[in-house]
Design goal:
It contains 3 helices and 4 strands; from the N terminus they run H-E-H-E-E-E-H. It has 164 residues and is of the alpha+beta class. Helix 2 crosses helix 3. The protein is elongated and about 60 Å long.
């Protein structure tokens, strides 16, 4: 096991997460990414999740890149009881994102991230609303993880290709 670790270090392998000054963020280059504001509550939640993952110390003073995202949401009724009431719902989120280099305003990386989470629809209106909100937030957290990882990998590759 120790020999394998030495071999990995020799080939240039290094962990994407943690270590060094940027511990707790996805990658050190994350401090170069400004995350654009997004409309509505879901957008604000996603933006905060991305800031936590990419820029744990807050927005950068001199960003090199800007990350923007657009959220599309749909709610599906999964289980309908005999009395025509819905007992199970599912939130489906699709987020289109793009990473733009600010120097020349060129989109250097883009993608789509999907997540879905089911929830119980209870007869109590408040409980049903909380269940739906929780499913939405779980989906947005999954999407934030996915976007942060993909951007981190892209920037690590770009940095390595540039000789950094």
């Amino acid at each position: 096991m120790i020999a394998a670790t030495g071999l990995l270090a020799g080939c240039g392998f290094h962990p994407l997460y943690g270590g060094g000054e940027a511990s707790g963020t996805v990658f050190a280059a994350g401090h170069e990414v400004s995350i654009a504001t997004m409309p509505d509550r879901s957008g604000q939640f996603l933006r905060n999740q991305l800031i936590d993952r990419l820029n744990s110390k807050g927005q950068p003073e001199k960003p090199v890149y800007s990350l923007s995202a657009k959220i599309n949401e749909s709610i599906d009724k999964l289980n309908i009881a005999r009395d025509s009431s819905v007992t199970r719902g599912q939130i489906v989120l699709k987020v289109e994102f793009k990473l733009t280099r600010l120097g020349d305003n060129k989109v250097v990386f883009n993608g789509i991230s999907h997540a879905l989470n089911a929830y119980n629809v209870t007869p109590e209106q408040y409980a049903a609303l909380i269940n739906e909100q929780d499913a939405r937030e779980r989906s947005l957290e999954e999407i934030a993880d996915d976007i942060a990882l993909r951007i981190g990998l892209y920037l690590e590759h770009a940095e390595t290709a540039a000789g950094g």
